[in-house]
Amino acid sequence: MTAPSPFSTALFDSAVEVERAVSELRYGRPVLLRNEAQTLAVLALDAVQPKVYDEFARVTDNDHYLLLTGKRAARLGLKTTSDVLVPLAGLDFDRASRLSYALDVEQPKCWVKAPKPASDSVELAHVSLLLPAMVVSDVTSRQDLFSGCCSLHANTLTTYRPARGNFQKIVRTRVPLEEYGDADFVVFRGGVAQKDQVAIIVGKPDVSKPVPIRIHSSCITGDLCGSLKCDCGDQLRNGLDLLQQAGGGVLLYLDQEGRGTGIGAKMRAYGYQHRGLDTIDADAELGFSEDHRRYEAAVAMLKLLDIAEVTVFTNNPTKIDSLRRAGIKVHQRTAVLGRVTRENENYLRTKTLRAGHMMDLETLIAAE
Question: Would you please indicate which residues are annotated as catalytic (active-site) residues?
Fold first, then answer.
């Protein structure tokens, strides 16, 4: 009898299925999403090539549908808060794409509330950093047509979360910084696609006491290029200033662009903001909720740095709640402020009034 392989996929729990499905979806290939009673073939419209879209329609005999989230459906004027399915028979790739994320689109005349198996595909799109506009078809009785495709159980997808134990510390190296002297950059690897995340340690924080920290999500436009549309670059630099003033601390720099939607979706949303939408409504046009960021990586990094108690520099109560739910003791919160500009005032106002960020914006504006 042949001994089981020491690298059996069972050793890697649900991560293998999810990682493979994410990769296939981003390559524009179908993924089979199944439960005990039904199997759906799903494509991400954001990644698929038009010729593959057309082939999918042919193979499914035009019995395929476009899943739109409740957020997108509401922006199209549909009287529902649920995800919906729109028949795609007769709709080419360009028309389906416009229905998924374009502005000023005629609302579909025919649609139904999406059943749960179809709505489960939205989570797969989120994990894949793709727009949640999915082409779906029930292939329960014809799975042989998709026999070479990756298959994923819906329960695995909806219960999968990157475990904190899935992260590991890769390297810690001293980096001299112009304004902060010698800092330590610590690289961690884990989560979906085994991304690298970075902790920047300023000074010599004492881990036996509450450690000053800031959790900062990446913003290429603001952090790197000084975009005036947000205050992210200011918050990054001011956060480092505050850590230094506190006698040392840790900035956790997380790879989750665009509030967790990815750089592609963020640039689409920017385009809609240029046309007058606020940041939340712009994301809703793309099918997204207000914030898709997650903080398992931040918690894992703190644990691996032996940090159990913190003071946090943030304006976002969600970060504090995430730390506390994970067992990190939060002693204090201090705001991190940036410049208010003509270009970012509405953005900051939206974060305060609609997203619950804790900022005294009127005082900031008066101080400019």
Answer: 291, 293
